[in-house]
Amino acid sequence: MEQRGRIARQQRGCCFVFVFLNVFFSGAFAQIRYSVSEEVQGGTVVGNIAKDLGLEKNALKLRGYRIVADSSEPLFEVNQSDGNLYLKKKLDREEICEKTSPCLVNLKTVLENPLEIHSVTVDILDINDHAPVFSEKEKRLEISESALPGARFQLQAAQDPDVGQFSIQQYKLSQNEHFRVEVKDRGENRKVPFLVLQKQLDRETAEKHKLRLTAVDGGKPAKSGNIEIIVVVLDVNDNSPVFRKERYSATIKENIPIDTVVIQVNATDLDKGANAEIVYSFGNEVDKKTSELFNINTYTGEITVKGQIDFEKSKIYDIDVQASDKGPVPLTSDKSVKINVIDVNDNPPEIEVTSFSNSIKEDSKIGTTVALISIRDSDSGINGKVICTIKQDVPFTLSPSLQENMFNNMYSLVTKQVLDREQQTHYEVIIVAKDAGEPSLSSEKSITVVVSDVNDNFPTFSQNPVNFYIKENNSPGKTILSVPAHDSDEGSNALISYSILRDRDIDNLFTSFLNVNSESGEVLALKSFDFESVKTFQFQVVATDSGSPPLSSNVTVNVFILDQNDNAPVILYPVSSNGSAEGVEEIPRNVNAGHLVTKVRAYDADIGYNGWLLFSLQQVTDHSLFALDRYTGQIRTLRSFTETDEAEHKLLILVKDNGNVSLSATATVIVKLVEPKEAFAASDVQSAAAEDEDSHVTFYLIITLGSVSLLFLISIIVLIAMQCSKSTDYTSKYLPEPNYDGTLCHSIQYRSGDKRYMLVGPRMSVGSTIVPGSHANTLVLPDRRKEEVRLFWGNCLR
């Protein structure tokens, strides 16, 4: 540092810089102290802050190093590139600190990321740039010739703004035989000269004596100032006023009202007449500022308050008071009056936010620093003790600095709880600083802390799972439902995109027929649903936000397809060979009333009312012969046939469902009346033909029986395997069979004489094709067991 000072002196002539570094680290605080002489040019390097803090040069710029300036013009600046602390302008110690010594300039500096605050103290060193100056060039002093040797006469002191060794160190008096000079040191660089009489004066010898008083400071080289003193020798007034007390002192409070009497001084004079009348005045040592604050009554000696007394400006006043008589040659005495000022609590605390991060993440840990708060109270003692609190209930607290330095009223605003932006986006933190004076004074400062968002909330659906009902035959490509999600975060963290979960491990083909709008969550069906193919299925929609990392959640959508009346009834019987719903039924003419002619069989793929079928007779040749059951489709005779009844009757049957818009189908049944003999003959012919073919059919029956048994066994095994491997998905299909009575074959038995007849129709099973044959289905049953086997295989082969 001394080498740096020598280099600076070489570069700037008489300018020189002394730098003293003293760094204490305690948490986020450090103290650095430099020294620099006054009157050096602006731009002079005071010290390298980066080096003294142990930082790289570019660290100051990266961490936003700055000086927290007050309202006055800053004297220093930091170059963030090289880390040097520079003077902004030429310094004048006397302008900055007046008589105060040492002259310290305290700087608050802040580093960001993380927050650190450092104290930089610059000691401005005095140089001998001022010479002693007397307020007057000439002083006239009247001294009586009766004055005895040793008499002292106070002279006007010279003023030197410099301090320490550069202030006035001595006074010199020009060579003479009557006087010498003595100096009385009153402290605080105050040296008062006194003219001491060494040899009694003789007015008759010399009426005047011209002397030169020289004030010399302690600089090298020393500077001086002169004043001419003219001593006029007067005639006799040989008693000086005498003060009654050796010491005068008083104590007052600051802000005391104007014209308040502080103290009264009193002096007496043993002379008589005008020589004993005393007048009081302030001595020559009373400066202008003191004379503006206090006044002395010329006649009573009362010292009163003239201006505003401020403890923060001066704690003590030492006032010189002179008592002079009114003699022809006035004699004077001087006395120092000491006035002590007591502090009152007249300054509220000042709150300064030295560093502040207006935004803090909601996932910040407890104890994260938000701001650095500096509290200052200009009062002293208990009036300057400040308690800092937070006014309202917020998740922040003030952590005081434990360092004993100029920042003993430094606080850190830190988090005390976990923050949640979704509960509160910002906080108005009101900091209250209250001193301990009586009455107490306080001040407030509001800080707005914004809680910034982090992606800590999953998208949520209002309902999970979602049960959705849709009618079949919907329009492809249109929106069927919407599954919007909500994210409590903000910005990109709350921007949600939607997709359908398509898991390859799950056999759900229906997801390929769906699409979802990635922005709105609207689900579109790419195909039309068919209740008869599938009745319910499920899929999952994934909602993913745009945070980093992204968060997502699923919703399960259960789709239930509602049946529409979109299937017309299908006639299962009668069905002709060309596929039309038309059949011929032959019955004996001698059947009784209530005889079952046939049964019209139909089914509807719809369910519920849409699949509930009703039968009605639309056309019939004779309404008195036949009746149709509305619910079963059975056609029965109403009465016995007569000879006059026609041999052929045509019945038109209407089958319709119970949908809102009914769908229907028609079937035609032609009933032929035959004589019992013809039925018997047809039965004999069929029986004979069957017996002839028994020998050829038996072999085929055995082969067929074995094949059917094998196929049945394989079908059972396959069915069991499918049921075991089939998932519990909602893709089961079924087909209702309304009005199916569960019988293998449709048959009508009747007896004629000693023979029994059976009219056999096709069995009613879904998907079967019926090829009716009226004559082939009339069989004679001589042997029950034989005919039952015959009928079973006949129908199976058919």
Automatic annotation (TrEMBL):
Residues 1-30 form the signal peptide. Gene3D superfamilies: Cadherins (2.60.40.60). Residues 65-134, 135-243, 244-351, 352-461, 462-571, 586-685 form the Cadherin domain. Keywords: Calcium, Cell adhesion, Cell membrane, Glycoprotein, Membrane, Repeat, Signal, Transmembrane, Transmembrane helix. The keyword Signal applies. GO terms for molecular function: calcium ion binding. It is found in: Cell membrane. One of its GO terms (biological process) is anatomical structure morphogenesis. It is a single-pass type I membrane protein. One of its GO terms (cellular component) is plasma membrane. The keyword Cell wall biogenesis/degradation does not apply. The chain crosses the membrane at residues 699-722. Potential calcium-dependent cell-adhesion protein. May be involved in the establishment and maintenance of specific neuronal connections in the brain. This is Protocadherin 2 alpha a 15. It comes from Oryzias latipes (Japanese rice fish).
